[in-house]
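Justification of resources, computational component.

The compute hours requested in this renewal are based largely on the per-chain cost of generating structure records like the one below. Each record pairs the submitted sequence with a full structure-token output. That output is archived, and it is also reused by downstream analysis tasks.
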Amino acid sequence: MEFDITNIESTEDLAKAVVNKFFPQQMTGPEKAEYQLKLQEILKARESVIIETQKSIIVAEMRQSDSYTKRARPTLVYAGLFFIFMVHIIFPMLAFCTKAQVPELVLPPEFWWAWSGVCGIWIIGRSAEQITTEKNTGATGQLINVITGKKK
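The structure output for this chain reads:
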């Protein structure tokens, strides 16, 4: 028995899919609707608990006294820039000035994947934060405020 949840967008859709797939076919429409409503309530409660837990973790991280945790992503970005600068500028210049044979240094593809991923996510997150801070409207602005710990 296969249960495809790729097109489910809300708790209502999930509850309806579960009721239609797993509950007996001989159930009447009102019975299915009753079970669907109960299942929706359970799913919404679960979703609320997950969101509140994630929010409390993020808020606790932002309030902790170790400010490095707040700077971890920028540190990765700047460390990556440092490595790029060393490998592509400083080492070639030193090799040119000293006329020494220096082995060719290449940053591995894993570095580029990880560094560009971190940079991309950081840039998108900061841009979304700035846009919603400027507009500060709607649920998105409230969500960003909760995540970043900003008060209105």
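The mean pLDDT is 76. Residues 29-63 form the longest helix (35 residues).
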